[in-house]
Amino acid sequence: KAGVTQTPRYLIKTRGQQVTLSCSPISGHRSVSWYQQTPGQGLQFLFEYFSETQRNKGNFPGRFSGRQFSNSRSEMNVSTLELGDSALYLCASSSFRYIDNEQFFGPGTRLTVL
Amino acid sequence: AQTVTQSQPEMSVQEAETVTLSCTYDTSESDYYLFWYKQPPSRQMILVIRQEAYKQQNATENRFSVNFQKAAKSFSLKISDSQLGDAAMYFCAYRRRTQGGSEKLVFGKGMKLTVNP
User: What is the mean pLDDT of chain B?
Assistant: First the structure.
């Protein structure tokens, strides 16, 4: 079974631009969560989608948004990029078939904002 | 709000020896999970071991075991017979346990483990 995939793996943008990152969960998984990883702040939860609905949201500004499609693939968008948005963005999928579900992480997208 | 603290940013261990990584957490919940995740350099994060708070028995997975002290809110990871492949960032994480609900992972800042040959 293929793991969680994220595209692109690396991205360079300039301040003020916007960016869209993509995450394809493990087949059959309906939940996708996004995390931002930076050296200073560590791993912080962005949001989680389940069956195309945002179920949980972290403490990030409105410039960060996401969505999930009917095939469970998810995208996150960051508008008006700032230097501080440079980070590794991780997505994780889980089945939610059982209460004791595990989150499986993708390799991440490394975003650099210049 | 729940918090997870890893007070040691870096540790090193000799190959074949044992090392213990410490983690403390704060929560008012009684039903939750605790995790240790491993993130090797430039590779994706994988789950090392998981502990359910309602279980008194400490979890073990081959060379990895935990010491879960619920009253003290402490959750340490012991790696026995350390191998070069154990070198990685290790993250302690917490998640509430809810029936079919979505709960985010709350991570500690991580600890870099170096394994010396």
Answer: 93
